[in-house]
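Quick start: what a row looks like.
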Amino acid sequence: MSDTLLINGTIIDSLRDAINSGEVGINHVPGLMKRIIKEGMWKKRYVKQLKETVEFDSFVDFVTTPPFKGLGEDLKLIEALMKTDREALDLWTEVTTGKPGGDKKSEDYKINVSNRNNDKSNGIDRPVGTTKTYALRKLRKDAPEIHQRVIQGDLSPHAGMIEAGFRKKTITIPIEPSAAAKALLNHFQREDLLDIMRIITDGLTDG
């Protein structure tokens, strides 16, 4: 038995313990997950509880397969724990949106296909457009330079999406005339304000 497989198993046991040990343990989850993903520990490890070596081709299968072969965790729950660390969330998004693998004849695979189908019906198969995970995936694919600045903490994911042109900048307008006017004055130049006034006037005339 190689030392690498033993270490992989130990680190993944530590991750499972952290997930289930309350607030203090949960704080360690992003760091452990980053190491597991970066070093590919999830792909092959020795599981001392089963006294055997376990392998996975799919990270999603590794997460959702019941213990002790897998983590036996809900994808949406673990993703929520990643959101305190942008790098961890980015790595998580990358490995959970790839093509599923594994032995299609195994019972574990059948269980995981069922889990993934349930996830799709619950809207968690792919990150939706307003989430940090979607923003990181979109920027990584279509604006890698801005993506890197987000990972480094120079920009928020939302600001990165705006700078890349994938989202429009928005403001909140209070439902009170003087406050609404003040908000517009604070965010628009004179020419834009004149356009807004024209559009409003035209709308009132049409009404």
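That is the whole record. Confidence is low (pLDDT under 50) at residues 99-126. Residues 3-19 form the longest helix (17 residues).
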